[in-house]
Amino acid sequence: MKELVRPSRLAPGARVAVVAPSGPVPEERLQAGLDVLRGWDLDPVVAPHVLDRHDEFPYLAGTDADRAADLQAAWCDPAVDAVLCARGGYGVQRMVDLLDWDAMRAAGPKVFVGFSDITALHEAFANRLGLVTLHGPMAAGIDFIKNTRAQEHLRATLFSPESVRTIASGGTALVPGRAQGVTLGGCLCLLAADLGTPYARPSARGGLLCLEDVGEETYRLDRYLTQLLRAGWLDGVRGVLLGSWQDCDPYAQVRALLVDRLGGLGVPVVEEFGFGHCEGALTIPFGVAAELDADSGTLTLAEPALS
Fold first, then answer.
1. Is 116 annotated as catalytic?
2. Which of 75, 100, 152, 201 has its CA 20 to 30 A from that of 124?
């Protein structure tokens, strides 16, 4: 697995576009998120369809074509320095094939931020554009709006990424040891769902795989992990970082499953690393070379996430 191209860091006055590739966005939370961005001396612009609702499927923020058009227009706008997702939910898989990846590649590298359902876009950006992306809080998310730790870690990553080259989570070793590789991952169910699509990488070989999920029963988590194992997708992975399992079954039960499914990989595994759907979620860059120290609960990037 190769390191990906690092976009440029942001500077005061940078223009950031907010898009909604997945679920519908509450207007009051969007406005609060825009206020946070303005407080960082950024210039946020809202894509035309961010507040749309799909007429037939209320879990979608407007039509697939409109959500794709918003993302593509924002990415291809030379005045835009970064694209931030407003929220996750569901919907990326319905619109990702509608994007003109040649046009987006020609637009050059930019900062891209999101998590949860946005996992499918992290994978597509890595495979189609070869770009480092940021798995972090989204502009209309509660964490982004109200949690100081989440805000400050994302802000530092965007403006002074050298200050957060070592991400200290307070996590503990599920399987001890150190490993070096390239970061990737996201929401477990989305990684499993991505298998067999044009955007799925053949495996996580050479990677430091970040996994988390939300609202899943243990047997479903078992299904996703088993699918990745059976598909050979976890063959050659160098290490695993486990984030939050918010609104899943009691963690003792989830933990037992993680030991059962991942403990036999023979690589370091760290749990409760503090990214994902938890309060105060850390921002994790995907596509950068790094070293995982499971015993100390740290991820040290070989270079800053952004150039």
1. yes
2. 152
